[in-house]
Amino acid sequence: MLKLLLIWEGRLNRGRLMDLFDLSSNWASVWIREFREQYPDWLMWDAKTRSFHTTPAAYKAWRTSDPRRLADATSLTQYLTLVGLPYAATSVAPGNGGILAAFPDLSTPSPQHFAIVSEAIRRGRAVQLSYRSMRNPEPHQRIISPHNLIRAGRRWHVRAYCHTRQDFRDYALGRIVEVKLLATPATKVEQDDKAWLADVRVRLVAHPDLTPEQESLIRFEYFSNTAARVETCRGALVSYFIQDVRAATDVKKQCPPDYQLAVANLEEVKPWLFPS
Predict the structure, then answer these.
(1) How far apart are CA 142 and CA 228, in angstroms?
(2) Span 14-26, average pLDDT
(3) From CA 215, how far away is CA 26, in angstroms rounded?
(4) Could you give the count of Cα atoms lying within 13 Å of 113 in the half-sphere of its Cβ?
(5) CATH code reported for the domain at 111-194
(6) What is the chain's Cα-based Rg?
(7) Domain boundaries defined on the chain
């Protein structure tokens, strides 16, 4: 358990263990001491945060044990479940049953990158990225001020203010080549991100090209036998939400059976969609 916290959060301290496992201060200290005895090279004390931080040796050992990163997705699932943010696993031992996801985690983030970005968010700091994008596939430098991690579909993103573009953007964690925590305070924070703070209504209906019988089925499955369903989500996440539920935004081009839902209030939603 402590190994998961150390690898994915980048630190261990008594307060975190006391909150997470309902331990006394003494027992939390005992757990950390025993872990340090077992993995003496994995922790380094940081007086400013009053925490033991993950050392490069820990991530090196982690990567050496799994050079192809095949276990990262399972490890991340276990970590999220441990801290109370579960999502469905992609496999389970025979006979154990369980809740499964039908899709593989194709872009599991590096534990070290995940931990450094999480640390920056907790401490209100900027980070320097070496990043690759579809527009600029070669690694290039960016300094960003992150404020939230997002799991959207099959990928993890960080929502952050880009110091170069001077705007809030989403960065896929799987496209980060290197990341470095800076001493620089975050230039902009969550409260400055208008798209993040905006509440946007998305009205979902059955696709108009469905037969009456099929429309009745969609209403039964998704809308509790009503004509539509309205969900409210952050403006910055509207496109991810629509992609995830596979709702058509152009009913002439996006047709059944691939699209069984449609967005009814397109004009209201359009300003928040990714550029086509």
Answers:
(1) 42
(2) 92
(3) 60
(4) 23
(5) 2.30.30
(6) 22
(7) 2-65, 111-194, 198-272
- Distance CA(256)–CA(207), nearest Å, equals 7
Residue 225 corresponds to which amino acid?
Answer: N
What is the rounded distance in angstroms from the CA atom of residue 92 to the CA atom of residue 100? 8
209 token code pair: 């090209």
Give yes or no for residue 137 having a pLDDT over 90: yes
Crossing angle of helices 111-123 and 56-65, rounded to 10°:
150
Nearest to 156 by CA among 142, 164, 166, 146: 146
CB 78 within 8 A of CB 88: no
How far are the Cα atoms of 85, 114, 159 from residue 190, in angstroms, in the given order? Answer: 21, 19, 9
- Per-residue pLDDT tens over the stretch 204-213: 999 999 999 9
DSSP assignment of 57-102, as one string? HHHHHHHHH-TT-TTHHHHHHHHHHHTT----BS---TTS---B-S
Q: Is 249 exposed, middle or buried (0-12, 13-18, 19+ CB in 10 A)?
A: middle
Q: Which neighbouring-strand residues pair with 51?
A: 46
- Global pTM? 0.81
Q: Which of 95, 77, 99, 96 is nearest to 86 (CA)?
A: 77
Query: pLDDT above 70 covers what percent of the chain?
Result: 91
pLDDT in tens, 227-254: 999 999 999 999 999 999 999 999 999 9
